[in-house]
Design goal:
eight-stranded antiparallel β-sheet, 24 strands, 12 helices, alpha+beta
């Protein structure tokens, strides 16, 4: 068996959910296609929703050199590729799952079960809930990013139901199409500072239907946020959310579990009772959902920031370099996965140079210091335990 290096390049694949951008409009697909020596080709009539860069059995990353799946490589080299601290805390798997998503219409209105519930659901229905883990996640904007995240402050919800006549008599067991139709013809002034509802209402109705209750829940009760490149949000495992549009780097605890109740066909919706019993009412406002970047002392030249969510599975380090700049990132005691989203350059690790280009993905074992040298404006994201 050939010895696995501490640093090696990965090849990734895209999934094809209908909310993804089509063809070369999808950043996820364009980045995926950049990796040399693969058979990935973009088809312009196909949706490309997300590029996965982890060891999860569904669409796992593979070694670019050998084609072996990442989870198999890790299984044969646990101590070297994960490190003792990671194995002791999370077991012999990569505890996070990084992705690049390209979104052109609303994802299902969803929450993710916490650890206790995830274990119960996995035991009861392992085909649908494929692991026993929770799934808190963060999303970092690479472009303008629209998202419904958490709940509006109660006073913002109350004023809509108090002032908008079609909503005063709204009851959960009534058909939801009529309130949508009547709310859509009200004057913009009736909505006050929430007038964006009038602009989003026909857009969401066109994507799904007037009978989809997710439209009313999201517009009336949830925070609508528009993030710029470099902004990020943090969603707890049981926090309600729906991504609406944009390109993002997403990272989550190693899980594929989710509960959906809107912005999807009725057949794909989970039990409303289960959904309601699972979710929490946090965050309560947009500011609570934001995850700020902080300067990281891991970057010796001060060119690296870190998004550090409250979960323990990972932090996300982002290095931004102008042309000709360098950054040295100190070694971590846990595993890292690197994705280049912009620019080109060279990465040096353990005396060996690796070409960097948009879409290139690398696995970096614990204990390895890396040096980035940019040839053009360079952005590198690294998830690390």
């Amino acid at each position: 068996m050939a010895m696995t290096g501490s640093v090696f390049q990965l090849q990734c694949s895209c999934n094809n959910y209908p909310w993804g951008e089509k063809g070369s409009e999808s950043l996820a697909a364009r980045l995926c296609a950049k990796t040399p020596g693969t058979d990935f080709k973009i088809e312009n009539d196909k949706e490309y929703s997300g590029m996965r860069m982890g060891d999860y059995p569904e669409l796992p990353a593979k070694s670019l050199e050998t084609g072996e799946e990442l989870h198999s490589i890790i299984d044969k080299n646990k101590e070297k590729l994960l490190g003792k601290r990671c194995i002791d805390k999370f077991g012999a798997v990569l505890p996070y799952l990084p992705k690049v998503l390209s979104i052109q219409k609303a994802l299902p209105l969803q929450i993710h079960p916490n650890k206790e519930l995830a274990a119960q659901l996995h035991k009861k229905d392992p085909e649908k809930f494929t692991d026993p883990n929770h799934k808190p996640e963060i999303a970092m904007a690479l472009s303008k990013f629209e998202v419904f995240a958490g709940w509006k402050p109660l006073e913002d919800i109350h004023i809509l139901f108090e002032q908008l006549e079609p909503l005063r008599r709204f009851l959960p067991d009534k058909v939801v199409a009529e309130p949508q139709e009547k709310s859509g013809v009200l004057d913009k002034d009736a909505y006050g500072r929430q007038s964006y509802i009038l602009e989003l209402l026909p857009r969401l109705q066109e994507q799904y239907s007037k009978e989809d209750a997710g439209t009313l829940v999201a517009l009336l009760c949830m925070n609508f946020m528009v993030l710029s490149p470099g902004d990020a949000i943090d969603m707890p495992a049981d926090g309600i959310h729906a991504y609406l549009s944009g390109d993002i780097v997403e990272c989550m605890a190693r899980s594929n579990n989710g509960l959906n109740t809107g912005f999807c066909p009725r057949a794909d919706r989970d039990s409303v009772e289960l959904f309601s019993n699972t979710m929490t009412f946090k965050p309560h406002n947009p500011q609570e959902a934001l995850l700020p970047s902080k300067p990281s002392d891991r970057g010796k030249q001060g060119k690296t920031g870190v998004f550090a969510p409250p979960m323990s599975e990972f932090n996300m380090y982002v290095t931004n370099l102008d042309e000709g700049e360098t950054e040295v990132l100190q070694a971590f005691d846990g595993p890292g996965v690197v994705i280049v989203t912009t620019g080109s350059g060279v990465m040096t690790a353990e005396g060996k140079e690796y070409k960097l280009d948009e879409g290139y993905v690398f696995y970096i074992a614990p204990g390895v210091e890396v040096r980035y040298q940019s040839h053009s404006k360079l952005a590198v994201y690294e998830a690390v335990v």
